[in-house]
Structures are given as C-alpha cells and as structure tokens.
Amino acid sequence: MALSKDRIGGLLMLTFCLIYAWQSQNIKLLPFQLNSSFHARTMPEVLAVLGVGLSVLVIAFPSDKERFTLTGQKLGLGLAFLALMSAYGLAVRPAGFLLSTSLFLTIGFAMLGERSIAKLLLVAVPLVVSFWVLMNYGLSVFIEPLPAFLRG
C-alpha cells in the first residue's frame, strides 16, 4: 500500500474523526435526555460515524497513485501562516476583533500574492465588520470589537 496524498489526508481525517467521537462523549446530558432519541450528542455522533466511514473509504480506495513528496511544496509559506495564526490568536483579545481580524486577513491575502492595498482592505474590512455584526446582532454572541484602550 503506497502512501499517497489521498491516504495521508484520509489518515488525518480518520484521526480527527476518532478524537471528535471520543470528545463528543464528554457532552453533558440532562437526566431527562438520557433516554431520548435526539439530544446534544446525536449530531456529533452521526458526524463522527460518517467521517470515519468516509475516511476509511478514502484510505482503501485513493483516487490517484501519486506518492507523497515534500519537494515543490511551499513549506516556508505554510510555516509563515502558522506563525500568523498564532500571532492572531494572541492578539485578538488585546487588539479587539475588528482590528486583529482585519490585519490577519490583510496579511494573509498579501502572503498569498495579492499586492493591491485597495483590494486587500476592500475585501478584509467589510468582511470582518459584517461577520462581527452578524455575530453580535444576528446571533447575540458578543465579540469585543475594539482594543482595551479604546473601550469606554
């Protein structure tokens, strides 16, 4: 069995789905939900079973016979994105959602090759603001929009 890109992806997905299934058992149920047919664990369990099944199919029947190699991959760009995501995770609370997420998207788009500052800002800022409005006013999930020094 050759280790192809599909099989590596299938193995990673299988690992994720098994951990997801295991963690879904930690969802607390109220006493009256224990014997009900649909409760808080139902959808995670169904998704985990479907994910495991599809992962096994991908591992058993990969679509291509190409072997996985690291040559020609942009490992530096991948590591730079990991660093950018880590910096975003550390900056989102102190800098606020709007500023940190706009910077994250702008820098990420620039790393992918977009050079027009106008395009970067015209895509990132409205996207972030609309997502913040949806979360706050549509779903009633409060996300701190501004840095700590600008809060009233």
End-to-end Cα distance = 62 Å
The number of E-state strands comes to 0
User: SSE order, as H and E?
Assistant: HHHHH
Report the biggest beta sheet as strand number plus sense, adding barrel if it closes. none
Number of domains: 2
- Structural class label: mainly alpha
Question: Unreliable runs, pLDDT <50, ≥5 residues?
Answer: none
Strand content: under 5%
Helix fraction, binned, reads 55-70%
Mean pLDDT: 88
Radius of gyration: 21 Å
Total DSSP helices: 5
- Shape, per Cα inertia axes: flat
Please provide a brief summary of the model.
The chain is 64% helix and 0% strand. The chain is built from five helices and no strands.
Supply the key terms.
single chain; 152 residues; mainly alpha; 2 domains; 64% helix
Would you give an account of this structure?
- Helices cover 64% and strands 0% of the residues.
- It has 2 domains: 5-60; 75-138, no CATH class.
- It is built from 5 helices and no strands.
- The radius of gyration is 21 Å and the shape is flat.
- The model has no long low-confidence stretch (mean pLDDT 88).
- It is mainly α.
- The chain has helices spanning 5-24, 42-60, 75-95, 97-111, 117-138.
Secondary structure layout:
Blueprint: H1 5-24, H2 42-60, H3 75-95, H4 97-111, H5 117-138
Helix pairs in contact: 1-2, 3-4, 4-5
